[in-house]
């Protein structure tokens, strides 16, 4: 924050934000600092009445905002970006507290969302015309109404503003529900955006997972944008059916990386490790399975093990590369995966089969050497810092192995022969495939999954349409 800026925003008090006003509540909830296990600040638990009031305010704001010009919307986004960025340091501190992310990665998330604002400033909704002798057909894209955004705990800033920005640009209003595990950044972002937006345009209700069903059932909400697990995504889709809400579901993945035999092992090994262990493996699109050609399998695995041993795990201020698992629930799930892998007798190439319980939810990054295809570590998404490797020899067979999953979010192919790598990439059943890079979603590209990894997609030029209805006018010429 600029030293000359005078602000009324306090970063140790938290509220739901409804109709432009901070609102407290009778019941309180606290997040947990995953580094220390200590409770963080109180925040109110929103009620059904809070949700109802938010929808009324959002509908009222929508009736005006829906008719705004694109130039007006972009002007507002510029104000939102500038105002948000003036608080980026304070938001970074909140993110560190609620997620335990190492400082450099927390700062990257908190400040990197400027790129989402900037890219959306370059976008416009298309207007398509088809004309023949008797008529002109014009297709435009009009806003849906009130959007309900249900946000996960792994990237609470990117995945809240990543929904807010396109919703506002397309003429909608939006109500956010942050995860109870990481509520603080989203609550504060929405609060500070009230200083540059009209009441009811952007609101937030938090405190309990019970709020999700309140949003999905509400007849005044036109769309649910959800990022989270496959199991919850299925429940949301079913809950939206009675009101035929539009849904975008960005769900879990079991991303495969295929490594061709012509790669530079020393260069690629650290990249494979980072793809698997970024954010302590708590990334829906992180690498979850690594298939390495048999000719370089041992050499690559040895290089990965060596790099993994150098990766520091620790608190945000220790210069660590990886922080803790964000919450105890996920910590216990990852421990179950470790226990299953140990009990089945699979080989730990690096990392301990026994996860130490102590202060904070820390787990050392772990590589499992060649477990069987039917093992849990191959079949399931651990969402933690543990990854299996397997050798391969036949290209057709490894493509089938990579595609043998109900998930289809992301995938990677690594090879110096770019033509060969891209041919394989085209055959991988995933929404986003990366060649010679680990998975790095960007606001420039549509992001969504195949199979059970989701419905629809957001971001990029095409992603704007997810917040709109096509509206077609058929104009016949008078004879």
Automatic annotation (TrEMBL):
Its EC number is 1.2.1.3. It catalyses: an aldehyde + NAD(+) + H2O = a carboxylate + NADH + 2 H(+). One of its GO terms (molecular function) is aldehyde dehydrogenase (NAD+) activity. InterPro entries: Ald_DH/histidinol_DH, Ald_DH_C, Ald_DH_CS_CYS, Ald_DH_CS_GLU, Ald_DH_N, Aldehyde_DH_dom, LUC3-like. The active site is at residue 250. PROSITE patterns: ALDEHYDE_DEHYDR_CYS (PS00070), ALDEHYDE_DEHYDR_GLU (PS00687). Keywords: Oxidoreductase. Residues 27-471 form the Aldehyde dehydrogenase domain. It is an enzyme of class 1 (oxidoreductase). Belongs to the aldehyde dehydrogenase family. PANTHER family: ALDEHYDE DEHYDROGENASE-RELATED. This is aldehyde dehydrogenase (NAD(+)). It comes from Saxophila tyrrhenica.
């Amino acid at each position: 924050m600029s030293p000359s800026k005078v602000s009324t925003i306090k970063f140790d008090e938290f509220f739901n934000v409804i109709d432009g006003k901070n609102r407290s509540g009778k019941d309180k909830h606290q997040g947990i600092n995953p580094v220390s296990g200590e409770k963080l600040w109180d925040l109110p638990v929103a009620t059904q009445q809070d949700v109802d009031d938010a929808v009324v305010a959002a509908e009222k704001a929508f009736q005006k905002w829906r008719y705004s010009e694109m130039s007006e919307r972009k002007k507002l986004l510029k104000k939102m970006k500038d105002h948000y960025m003036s608080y980026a340091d304070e938001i970074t501190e909140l993110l560190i507290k609620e997620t335990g992310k190492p400082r450099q990665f927390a700062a990257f998330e908190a400040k990197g969302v400027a790129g989402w604002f900037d890219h959306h400033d370059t976008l416009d909704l298309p207007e398509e015309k088809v004309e023949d002798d008797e008529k002109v057909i014009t297709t435009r894209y009009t806003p849906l109404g009130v959007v309900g955004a249900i946000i996960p705990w792994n990237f609470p800033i990117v995945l809240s503003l990543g929904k807010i920005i396109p919703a506002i640009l397309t003429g909608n209003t939006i109500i956010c529900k942050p995860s109870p595990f990481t509520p603080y950044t989203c609550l504060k972002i929405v609060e500070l955006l009230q200083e540059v937006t009209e009441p009811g345009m952007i609101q937030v209700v938090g405190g309990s997972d019970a709020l999700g069903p309140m949003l999905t059932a509400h007849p005044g909400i036109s769309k649910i944008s959800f990022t989270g697990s496959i199991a919850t995504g299925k429940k949301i889709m079913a809950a939206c059916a009675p009101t035929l809400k539009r849904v975008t579901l960005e769900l879990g993945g079991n991303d495969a990386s295929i490594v061709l035999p012509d790669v530079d092992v020393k260069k690629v090994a650290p990249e494979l490790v980072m793809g698997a262990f970024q954010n302590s493996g708590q990334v829906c699109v992180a690498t979850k399975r690594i298939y390495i050609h048999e000719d370089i399998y041992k050499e690559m695995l040895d290089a990965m093990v060596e790099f993994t041993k150098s990766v520091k795990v620790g608190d945000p201020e220790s210069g660590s590369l990886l922080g803790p698992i964000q919450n105890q629930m996920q910590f216990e799930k990852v421990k179950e995966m470790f226990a299953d892998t140990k009990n089945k007798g699979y080989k730990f190439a690096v990392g301990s089969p026994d996860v130490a319980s102590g202060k904070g939810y820390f787990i050392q990054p772990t590589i499992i050497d060649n477990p069987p295809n039917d093992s849990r570590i191959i079949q399931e998404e651990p969402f933690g810092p543990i990854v299996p490797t397997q050798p391969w020899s036949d290209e057709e067979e490894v493509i089938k192995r990579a595609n043998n999953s109900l998930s289809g979010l992301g995938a990677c192919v690594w090879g110096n022969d770019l033509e060969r790598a891209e041919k394989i990439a085209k055959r991988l059943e995933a929404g986003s495939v990366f060649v010679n890079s680990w998975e790095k979603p960007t606001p420039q590209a549509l992001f969504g999954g195949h199979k059970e990894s989701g419905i629809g997609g957001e971001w990029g030029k095409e992603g704007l349409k997810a917040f709109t209805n096509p509206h077609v006018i058929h104009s016949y010429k008078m004879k």
